[in-house]
Automatic annotation (TrEMBL), chains A, B:
InterPro entries: Acyl_CoA_acyltransferase, Diverse_Substrate_AcTransf, GNAT_dom. PROSITE patterns: GNAT (PS51186). It holds the Pfam family Acetyltransf_1. It comes from the Eukaryota. Keywords: Acyltransferase, Transferase. This is Probable acetyltransferase NATA1-like. Residues 74-220 form the N-acetyltransferase domain. GO terms for molecular function: N-acetyltransferase activity.
Length: 233, 233
């Protein structure tokens, strides 16, 4: 468990944690659900939130599960006060262990941290680790490159752990995977008023496309197309 | 072949054609390649175009081919002066005929049409049909809905056939499919200065999201993430 009491134990030592990014599986559904709800609260969009653990489970972890990064894929970021065991890192329980090997990194914290949600977010993999954030991505396609890419739908780090490079670690993991798979692009969206995020993304090497706007057809407007048979009438 | 000579044959009759939207297969690759190149020319972006027939073929029509709308999916719009034969409509050659039945519609043209590319774009299915446009889409995912949707990467109608409702027919086909599959959204992008397109999309029931901007990591900036192992350094 992470709390400021760790600081008292070794005041002269830098506070170090081990960070791990690994593929999510169905055991992570309750945490993913809570993280998405926190994101909706942060964005003041809870009125648009209708996700349940059951709907997440059936859409993100169907059986059989497609290989990671060829369909909807969730990576979990978790932190532990102790090194992760090697066997756990090898991820023997995933269908395609060769496709994504967990990324593990020792992180020195400049100041002690209080995580009031540490119990609630205890990792299902145990070992005293806590789930801190996630990224959800899926393949997209560029017709000009004739190559798939990865689209990052969500990237989220819990409030207690922000501004410590974990968002960058999650996004870098997706970029590294895209590069490794020979993909052409990684894309995501940002709100135009979020100048801090925009600076951060540009610093990571991304360009923000100023002229494109997203169009969305949803709800009853979408259902009407189902009713009239796809433009037959 | 479509030309203005059809008008001379029956001056009092409305000019009718049959329009069909069907799943593309590997036989359509040469046409898809030419259509994407025309789109790049239209957008003055040929310097970003590096697509070949071979790269399209391997990325859009891999073997085995995933079911339509669960991965990258191309729909072809073709027109014929004669009704399409029923057997051709049934699409016996696709892996999952039940998932998308071709949409066929009789379209009356208000004026005769000259298609200078009719020979070049003769349909690989024969029957005197010509390929007129395409749409490429793939699944995306909403974490607030816990539902997949469809993202429309490209929608294109050749110059000779524009402003006759064929773009709407293609987009409606995607919307109808999304509704039929119980998906939550259809999304696509538009350039902010393209006010005609924006009006058209809004009329179709879509909302344009004003605040979101696309971020893109590509080229050497992306390759660097592959080299450093995903944030390990």
């Amino acid at each position: 468990m992470f709390s400021s009491s760790a600081a008292a134990a070794a005041p002269e030592q830098p506070l170090a944690v081990w960070a791990r990014i690994r593929l999510a599986d169905s055991r992570d559904v309750p945490h993913i659900h809570r993280l998405i709800h926190q994101m909706a609260e942060f964005e003041k969009l809870t009125h648009l939130f209708s996700t349940t653990e059951s709907s997440l489970s059936s859409t993100l972890f169907p059986s059989p599960q497609p290989p990671p990064f060829l369909s909807f894929t969730v990576l979990i970021l978790e932190l532990s006060p102790n090194p992760f065991s090697q066997s756990d890192e090898e991820h023997k329980d995933t269908a395609n262990p060769s496709l994504f090997r967990p990324i593990v990194r020792r992180v020195e914290l400049k100041s002690p941290l209080e995580d009031p949600e540490a119990v609630e977010f205890a990792s299902p993999r145990g070992g005293g680790a806590v789930v801190v954030g996630f990224v959800l991505c899926f393949p997209n396609y560029s017709t000009f490159l004739a190559k798939p890419g990865l689209y990052v739908e969500d990237i989220f780090v819990r409030a207690a752990w922000r501004r410590r490079g974990f968002g960058r670690m999650l996004l870098s993991a997706v970029a590294a995977q895209a590069a490794k798979m020979g993909m052409g692009r990684v894309e995501w969206c940002v709100l135009d008023w979020n100048v801090n995020a925009i600076s951060f993304y540009e610093e990571m090497g991304a360009e923000v496309l100023p002229q494109w706007r997203i169009c969305r057809l949803t709800g009853e407007a979408l259902q009407r197309y189902g009713a009239d048979g796809g433009g037959r009438s």
